[in-house]
Structure formats: structure tokens, C-alpha cells
Amino acid sequence: MESECTSAYGNNTNVDFTQSTDDDPLIDGPLISQDVLESVIKREFQKLPTHWAVGVLSFLHVVYVVVCIVITVFCWISDEYTTECTATLHGIDSKTVVLLGKVSLWVMVFIYDRFVQHHHSAVRRRGYLDFYRLTRGIKNLPLLIHSAGNAAILTVIAPSSMLDASVKNLSVYLLLAIICLELLLSVICLLRYTVHVLKFNSKKPHPDVTEEERSHACSSGSHTETGFRDGSSLEDVVEKQADLIDYLKQHNSVLSRRILTLTAQQIRA
């Protein structure tokens, strides 16, 4: 049934192109062949290349947590390896190393967030609006988690002398707990995000507008999701309609330029 709908959808599209070209009295000059026009309109699916960045960020985060545990256990809590730690860290205080590493990790997360945001904006411009909205919240969570972790670490480090006075090395234990909890939450969010990206890349869907037109062509009684339904959020409907209008305007602009270029090429030929 799906193949029949796809075939019918393709045939309807071809007919529309032919009719719009034949019936338009404003076209002057040689007509663009149907095969050339379709090859221009159809775009190759571009995979979202953010999953490898998730792997790199997760690896760096795990390395940082392991280093923090080793430093705090052997250089911060225990006094048996003071000489070795001083030589290994080149005289830098172990607490300073942990905090500098945390700042460096946050910078890496910020770069990752900008990288992901750039590619998701490109996905939105290509018309995959549902996927953009699906991952809009979860893709920003790692940066929020790390920022909240930084605030929690500062809250523990500032009164560390008071905490250690009541319970020995209490600030160290709280610091390790925050770092490990931050790793757990961040990995969960990154794994969920990776699942969405891998499903999107393996499915290779058409833009949302094309998918809705195809489903509408398969069933005349079906309705697209751009209109308002009972139980749907009016804000979501308005946002989706605005995204669709923006995508269609960009798509029509690009398509018009390409058609004019092909027409000019045929005239010169």
C-alpha cells in the first residue's frame, strides 16, 4: 500500500510540474525538461553529523571524572603520596587542577552546544521541523547540567573550610558527588539525544511538508498536522505553521533561482 501511495504521489507531482509549465503564459523561451527540473528539486538527504561529537564529549567527561577521583583520593585526601603528587602536578595544588579541568570541560561543552545548534538550525532550514522540535530541549540539557554543576561546585568550594571543620574532608566528598552526578545526568541526556539522531539518520525522511503531502495523497480523508485539533496546543500549532511558512519561503526562493539559472543556460545553449 505504501509503495502504491509513493508511486501515486510521484505521478501526481510529475503531472503538476508539467501542467504548471504548460499553462503558464508568462514563460518565454525554451521549456526546462522535466528530468532536469526534478533533479534540481530533489535534494540528497544530509545526515546529522552530531553523534560523533557526543562520543568525543562523553569520552572527555569520563576522563575528567577519573582524573578527579584519582587526584582527590591520592593527592587531596591521603597524605601518603604528597611528594609524588607534587612532582606529578609540578607544584600545582590539586584543588586548582580539579577546578581548571572543570572550567576546560565546560568550555568543551559550550563548543559542543554551539556545534549542535548550528547543525540543528540547518536541519530546520531543510524542513525537518518535527525533528527540530523533538530534540530542541534535550540537545541543550548538557550545557545546562554542566552550568548547574559549576554553580554547585562553587557553593561547596567557597565554604570548604567550614565544611571540613565539622566533618573531615566533607567538601571533597561533596565535590566528588557533584562531579559523578553531573556525569550520570549528562551521559543519560547524550544517549537519548544520540538515539534520536541515529533514528533520524537511518530513516532518511523527506522534509515535513513533503511527508504531509504524501500522506494526504495516500488518503483523501486524512488531515495534516498543521491545523488545529482538539487537545492540541494552540501555541504549538502557530509555531509549526510559522516554521512551515518560513521553510516554504526559503525553498521557493532557492527553487526560483535554480529554475532561472537552468532557463538561462538553455537559452545560451
Automatic annotation (TrEMBL):
Keywords on record: Membrane, Transmembrane, Transmembrane helix
Membrane topology: Multi-pass membrane protein
Record lineage: Eukaryota, Metazoa, Chordata, Craniata, Vertebrata
Region (Disordered): 1-20, 204-233
Residue ranges, compositional bias (Basic and acidic residues): 205-216
Cellular compartments annotated: Membrane
Protein name: Transmembrane protein 192
A GO cellular component annotation in the UniProt record: late endosome
Domain of life: Eukaryota
Gene behind this protein: tmem192
Family, similarity comment: Belongs to the TMEM192 family.
Keyword Aminoacyl-tRNA synthetase: no
TM annotation in the entry: 52-77, 97-116, 137-158, 170-195
